[in-house]
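Sample intake sheet
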Amino acid sequence: MYRFLLSRQWVILTLVAVLLIPTMIRLGLWQMHRYEERTARNDLVARALEASPVPVESLTAPGKKITTRERYRTVTAKGRFDTDHEVVVRRRTDGDDNIGYHVLTPFLLDDGKVMLVNRGWIPADGPSQTEFPEIPAPPRGEITVTGRLMPDETTEASGIKDLEGLPDRQIMLINSEQQAERLDAPVLGGYVVLKTPEPKNNTPQLIGKPGNENAALNYAYAIQWWLFAAAVPVGWWFLVRREKREREAGEDVRPAEAEPATV
């Protein structure tokens, strides 16, 4: 009755179906794992953003690596900006994907240490981008700043190559160890994305809060893959039944007997 399943065509079709089912199940599990990772990341970021501000040196120190739990925490520090040693970070975009710079300004703390402050984004002022751009000055004198703590940037984490031979006072990555060598000073690990004081005329343009990753999309993909996995055996059985019906219908058809000729 089902001997046609032993044909080459049906053996291949069955093997493909058998392989598809566990593959789709694994893809669903991978998407669910991504959903859990993204959900955990969103929860961690939300808790960090909602946490009360703390002094920066309670979370970081020279040479310290910023952990995922410390990332995005709001920190405060008292000191003054050192614009003489200010640099810009190349190839950074704003919310509209316009290419420009991030402004990185050392902030001298009262105890002699240095905190790196990303003051925000400014547009590139020319096609060559070889000249140091004009940057609005931060407030002078001793002030208190608040911002979000961030880990050092690396090529491995960001995908940005740390190019050499750049124009003067231009860098590719914000890295406290590199800046400590350049400044010859104790620099706190990581850097701070400025929140307050806000710049006049929004220049540099402050960097916005991190957005939530779309975890729900991964959840939907996981369900989709599992539905596909369930549909494979159903579809296979539907094809088998249709093949069986067509073969049985073919066997029932008999050629009509020729009628005797009349004289």
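Comment: Strands lie at 54-55, 74-81, 87-93, 99-109, 114-123, 143-150, 170-171, 191-196. The chain has a mean pLDDT of 88.
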